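Hi, here's the filled form for the chain we discussed.

Project: internal
Contact: R.S.
Residues: 236
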Amino acid sequence: MVANAAPDATTRAADRALGLLRVVCEHDGVKLADAAKEMGLSASTALRLLRTLEANGFAARRGDGLYRPGYRMVQLGVQALSHDSLVATSRAALQSVVARTGESAYLSVAAGNTQGLYLAIEEGTQSVRHINWVGRTFPLEGSAAGAALQGKVEPGSFIVVAEGVEPDITAVAAPVMAGSKVVAALSVVAPSYRTTPEAARTLGAVVAAEAGRLFATPAADQAGAPGLDDSHPAAG
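And the returned structure, exactly as it came back:
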């Protein structure tokens, strides 16, 4: 009897943890009490399991007290679903950026409170171009894509950051909006030696325009991307 109890208890704990993870992933932020109620668990049991998920990066408790998917879930999702709808939707925009600039273009998303994650790339056509960083995390603070993901860049505009993530590299990024929510960042990463202020403005206009078209309604798309000359350059 004792020999059978341990596997059963382990199975129940795993089922409960996975069930809580499902609840967290299915909601745009969920309270502890609501997650516990949906799973039929006591608040103390749900809290213990959620803390375990949080410690391993599968869940994250934000400042508003709500639980959301953690950075590890995002990473696993990228690896398991390489043709995710967001990646598929962005492919034409990434290709357009490269065709118009020759520089490597990235799509990135937030992966927790402090990190971003490179989700997709279209490699540039320049003989010297940036390497593939898909699946790699980067700090939100001090990076161009991070500023866009944090809502520090107005929709339709862009930011320029030199040497924010890597020496001798300049990044130009714009937010990708779905309604009023920032869902991703579109960026160009290029060697700093050829990213003059004038070149950065040109890159920014292209990136902001393509980012604005990704989830635009037909009416908004026909009207064109707003505010392309409202750039926000920053030193990295």
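Let me know if anything looks off before we file it.
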